[in-house]
Design goal:
Structural class of chain B: alpha/beta
Shape of chain A: globular
Helix content of chain B: 10-25%
Distance between the termini of chain B: 41 Å
Strand order of the largest sheet of chain B: 1-2-5-4-3-6
Strand content of chain A: 15-25%
Helix content of chain A: 25-40%
Largest interface: A-B, 35 and 29 residues
Largest sheet of chain B: 6 strands, antiparallel, barrel
Number of helices of chain B: 5
Structural class of chain A: alpha/beta
Radius of gyration of chain B: 18 Å
Shape of chain B: globular
Distance between the termini of chain A: 33 Å
Oligomer: heterodimer
Strand order of the largest sheet of chain A: 3-4-7-8-11-12-17-18
Largest sheet of chain A: 8 strands, parallel, barrel
Order of helices and strands of chain B: EEHEEEHEEHEEHEHEEEE
Number of helices of chain A: 8
């Protein structure tokens, strides 16, 4: 593993800036037969919640030009089974420094409960980072996403940073006009990094059935088609905060990762591309290595935000 | 892995059999399993398309493809010699018990693909196989089959005929196991008759699929879970499910 790809996002040290996004890489074991997971900087496991969740009714997936729509709904086995089966299995295929666990909830207490349960079994050296899935609906706020409101995200971030033995990444949806305010709240409450999920909402109509394709009507878009939006969001936020940023939004190759980093990301998260190319993560790592070599870059962090310099 | 198209057989205006030279898959795949075919390098369509394997021949796999949407339309323009990115094989497989001397296979339309592969493998055993195919107007899909000592073929005019014909076949042989792949309504019917007749029933289920190997959680199939229900993944937990397990729509 080369030194020039090592990155540090406050308390999070990754051997390279290439991670796989939560919800897009299962719980690592499913991907293990199809790629060399050891090449990756980090793998963010599927979000776990306090109680099991069945997820949304089918259909959940739709191919669109240049990407896809999906409506999965946090399907997971709940924290008890997660700790009994899922996390031990994932830990078997990932180094401690690659393990990023993602926690979701309906109220702040759910997050705290799940994090405390994880911390009882896994020490701070056994998990690289905790990702707070703040995209979840807050039932105490009528179902609005935690990350849609600076006050709500601040409360959640503060409560979690106080108890988490692991560095904290707060994952927000980049769909709200007040995103910069939300990000500032995350920064102010002591998170180590912020993760923007670039997943604009869309609607598809099943023209044969004359009704919306998805049960929940609206569903996020992902895949290469969203990348320009992601670069824009990254660009704007980089000018507002100094907190290290990660984003998932249509990264399909090393050039995409370089572009995002030049716009301001400290690390990238690969999402939907894993579905069609399970080796994409290791290919991006190799591509970044080559990029550094060809451009005489001693550490990849040198390019973070470089496009902003005028 | 990259596979080369070695042959394309056009059966009618919308059904094709593609042959791909792809040793890694051909030598490892079993009836009921599927592959994920990369349709476009330009991400349009973005997702791969899943196909149950239709047959193998040495290092070659064959897929039965019906042109029904964007992905299969792109595929219909493919030519012999083209290189295609295929992943697999994925999913579980059709299995049979030593004590079942008679097996009833039901294929509906293009859902005949995995049934054909199962027929090929069963032909290497001493099992008596009874095939029920529907609908009759698509009989070209089974034109290559030759009935004989161990294979009988029954063709249903349409779905309305499947129930009575299948019941007759089950009663005729007694104690047969059922295997089916086809449209949703047909699968529900087969599952119902299997349960009524206490016949082990194995269904190859379909769902809109994102990846094919269990990371996206997209291709779920509702199954019974005590008094409740649960979702299983068609790719990893299936695509073959017990008929008793599936929770069909009312």
């Amino acid at each position: 593993m080369s030194e020039r790809l090592k990155v540090k996002l406050n308390g999070i040290e990754l051997c390279n800036p290439v991670t796989l996004a939560s919800g897009c890489c299962g719980n690592a074991v499913e991907l293990d037969p199809h790629t060399d997971l050891s090449a990756l900087g980090g793998v963010t496991l599927k979000t776990v919640t306090r109680e099991p969740r069945k997820g949304n009714p089918p259909p959940r997936i739709l191919d669109v030009h240049g990407g896809m729509m999906s409506s999965i709904g946090l399907m997971n086995v709940g924290i008890d089974q997660y700790l009994e089966k899922v996390l031990p299995a994932a830990a078997g295929v990932l180094r401690p420094g690659q393990r990023i666990v993602s926690v979701g909830g309906s109220v702040v207490d759910d997050y705290i409960y799940a994090i405390n349960a994880i911390a009882e079994k896994y020490g701070k050296d056994e998990i690289a980072a905790l990702e707070l899935n703040a995209c979840c609906p807050n039932v105490k706020a009528g179902g609005a996403a935690f990350s849609s409101n600076p006050g709500m995200v601040a409360e959640l971030t503060k409560a979690v940073c106080r108890i988490s033995p692991y560095p904290v990444i707060v994952k927000i949806i980049a769909n709200f006009p007040n995103m910069n305010e939300v990000a500032k709240a995350v920064e102010a409450e002591g998170a180590d990094a912020i993760h923007m999920s670039i997943s604009p909402m869309g609607i598809a109509i099943d023209i044969k059935k004359k009704k919306p394709y998805f049960y929940n009507v609206k569903a996020p878009l992902s895949g290469p088609l969203v990348k320009p939006i992601g670069i824009l969001k990254t660009w704007d936020l980089y000018e507002e905060i100094s907190l290290p940023m990660i984003a998932s939004g249509g990264i399909a190759c090393a050039d995409d990762a370089v572009e995002y980093m030049m716009a301001g990301l400290s690390a990238v998260a690969i999402g939907a591309m894993n579905y069609i190319n399970p080796k994409v993560g290791e290919e991006v790592v190799l591509g970044l290595e080559k990029y550094c070599e060809e451009n005489a870059i001693s550490n990849i962090s040198e390019i973070v935000g470089i496009a902003h310099v005028r | 892995m990259i596979a080369t198209i070695t042959n394309i057989e056009q059966l009618n205006d919308r059904d094709f059999i593609f042959a791909f030279d792809c040793a890694e898959i051909a030598l490892n795949v079993a009836p009921g399993q599927f592959v994920e075919v990369g349709v476009s390098k330009a991400y349009d369509p973005f997702l791969r398309r899943p196909f149950s394997v239709y047959s193998t021949d040495g290092t070659v796999i064959k897929l039965l493809v019906r042109v029904v949407g964007r992905g299969t339309k792109v595929m219909s323009a493919w030519r012999v010699g083209d290189s295609v990115d295929i992943l697999g094989p994925f999913g579980n497989l059709f299995t049979w018990r030593p004590e079942d001397t008679d097996l009833i296979l039901v294929g509906g339309g293009v859902g005949f693909a995995p049934i054909n592969f199962l027929l090929d493998r069963l032909a290497q055993t001493d099992k008596k196989v009874h095939l029920l195919f529907s609908p009759k107007r698509e009989s070209e899909l089974i034109a290559h089959l030759e009935a004989g000592k161990n294979l009988s073929v029954t063709v249903a005019e349409n779905r309305a005929e499947i129930g009575p014909l299948l019941q007759k076949m089950i009663s005729g042989v007694g104690g047969a196991a059922l295997y089916a792949c086809g449209p949703y309504g047909m699968m529900k019917l087969v599952a119902g008759l299997g349960a009524e007749n206490h016949a082990p029933t194995w269904l190859s289920m379909e769902a809109a699929m994102g990846c094919g190997f269990g990371i996206c959680g997209g291709c779920i199939v509702p199954v019974k879970d005590g008094e409740d229900f649960a979702y299983k993944k068609a790719c990893n937990d299936g695509p073959i499910f017990s008929g008793e397990e599936i929770l069909f729509d009312e």
